[in-house]
Amino acid sequence: MREKIPTNKLESLALYIFVGTIIGARLGHCLFYDPIYYLSHPVEMLLPIQIRDGAIKFTGYQGLASHGGAIGVLLSIILYSKKNKVAIWFILDKISLAVPLTGAFIRFGVIIYE
């Protein structure tokens, strides 16, 4: 059974998922691995800078957590489905094949990195 889904709907869903993944992965790293530091320095959660003694230092993004990314994806799908009035189960059904493949690539990347 083929479904006629407009391309612009798929593009906006992909954008929601991409942004949700990046923000969720970063916040997941900050809140799961070093919450005391990042809650006292909230700007450093999303901006790649460090502020010490009035000086600003560029640090780059130093951590992403895959489980935070997964939470970000779920929240972005919920947000997308509410905004566009699409059933959550419909979206989850359509991306179900990509999820285990993405998880495998993430784990493979972690193995190579370490």
Automatic annotation (TrEMBL):
<feature type="transmembrane region" description="Helical">
    <location>
        <begin position="87"/>
        <end position="113"/>
    </location>
</feature>
<dbReference type="GO" id="GO:0005886">
    <property type="term" value="C:plasma membrane"/>
</dbReference>
<dbReference type="GO" id="GO:0008961">
    <property type="term" value="F:phosphatidylglycerol-prolipoprotein diacylglyceryl transferase activity"/>
</dbReference>
<keyword id="KW-0808">Transferase</keyword>
<dbReference type="InterPro" id="IPR001640">
    <property type="entry name" value="Lgt"/>
</dbReference>
<dbReference type="Pfam" id="PF01790">
    <property type="entry name" value="LGT"/>
</dbReference>
<dbReference type="GO" id="GO:0042158">
    <property type="term" value="P:lipoprotein biosynthetic process"/>
</dbReference>
<keyword id="KW-0449">Lipoprotein</keyword>
<keyword id="KW-1133">Transmembrane helix</keyword>
<feature type="transmembrane region" description="Helical">
    <location>
        <begin position="58"/>
        <end position="80"/>
    </location>
</feature>
<keyword id="KW-0472">Membrane</keyword>
<feature type="transmembrane region" description="Helical">
    <location>
        <begin position="12"/>
        <end position="38"/>
    </location>
</feature>
<keyword id="KW-0328">Glycosyltransferase</keyword>
<protein>
    <submittedName>
        <fullName>Prolipoprotein diacylglyceryl transferase</fullName>
        <ecNumber>2.4.99.-</ecNumber>
    </submittedName>
</protein>
<keyword id="KW-1003">Cell membrane</keyword>
<keyword id="KW-0812">Transmembrane</keyword>
